[in-house]
Design a protein that fits this description.
Elements lengths: L1 H12 L14 H29 L7 H16 L4 E5 L5 H17 L1 H12 L5 H37 L7 E5 H18 L2 H10 L5 H6 L1 H15 L5 H36 L13
Parallel strand pairs: 1-2
């Protein structure tokens, strides 16, 4: 038993079995062993959160089911009997699959800081010190920004559902299958969450020297137009309110990204001047 427990501990630790170089280099087998250990730890943590989510699934106040049905219930109340609508689950296995799917998605979202940390911990040792610095900044900002986007999507979802269900003729009743509704809600929240990350990627490209702040300002009218087109296409609800609630925060974030990019560019110019290595800007053409 002691040997088995020790083997499990070594498996979860993923410690290297070959000498590690002074610069942190490891043998390929040790890299694979570390990757396996991180995947196993992430999977175990995910299963623990999944079983915790099962407990909170049907709670009368603050349960997962009530949280997911919240936007639909708000939309139904806003319709005020003008449109008859009912949510239902299809099939004998529908309720079980509903519970497993809902708890699985909740476990993935709640445990995301842990398994993202495991991915980051596997990648970071191979980066240079400067790259590690910016990757930490990216990880610190990307997570909260994604959750802000998800929260914004959850806030505007009831209005989108109200508009879509409101198209139901008065002679008919609208039946909302929960599986389709849950897929719609998931897509809506992911679109908002990922969209809020796009300006952050623009800043990272600027730090890498790919995009300059001056170039962002030059193409600002096209960025505004493209943002509204993207918001109109990306929002599954297709209503103008959801489109504006996605486009306006994205434009504000793009403006912040442009300000940050211009600040970084000016800092680069000052650094070149101070070190005597002044060169042409990244987006300027040399006379040669």
């Amino acid at each position: 038993m002691a040997f088995s427990v020790g083997g499990v501990v070594r498996l979860l630790r993923g410690a290297p079995q070959h000498p590690v170089g002074p610069d942190g280099r490891m043998a390929l087998s040790d890299h694979l062993r570390e990757l396996r250990a991180r995947l196993i730890r992430s999977a175990l943590f995910l299963f623990v959160i999944f079983f915790v989510a099962l407990f909170f699934y049907g709670q009368p106040h603050g349960g997962l089911l009530e949280l997911v049905l919240g936007p639909y219930n708000q939309a139904r109340e806003a319709l005020d009997q003008k449109t008859q609508t009912t949510a239902y689950v299809a099939g004998a296995t529908g309720p079980l699959m509903l519970q497993l799917k809902l708890c699985g998605v909740a476990a993935i979202v709640v445990s995301s800081p842990y398994w993202l940390y495991q991915i980051w911990g596997f990648i970071v040792p191979g980066l240079h010190p400067k790259e590690r610095k910016w990757s930490r900044v990216f990880a610190a900002v990307a997570g909260p920004l994604f959750f802000v986007g998800v929260a914004t999507g959850y806030y505007v979802l009831p209005k989108g559902l109200e508009v879509l269900i409101g198209f139901t003729p008065a002679q008919l009743q609208n039946l909302v299958e929960f599986g389709e509704y849950f897929s719609f809600l998931t897509r809506m929240l992911l679109v908002f969450g990922i969209s809020f990350e796009i300006p952050l990627f623009v800043i990272m490209l600027n730090l890498a020297g790919v995009v300059s702040g001056k170039a962002i300002g030059r193409y600002r009218p096209w960025i505004i137009l493209g943002t509204f087109v993207f918001a109109a296409v990306a929002t599954p609800s297709t209503d103008p309110f959801s489109m504006l609630m996605l486009a306006i925060p994205m434009l504000v974030l793009f403006l912040i990204a442009e300000v940050v990019a211009r600040t970084v560019d000016r800092a680069k110019v000052r650094k070149r001047a101070a070190t005597g290595t002044d060169q042409w800007a990244d987006d300027e053409i040399s006379p040669l």
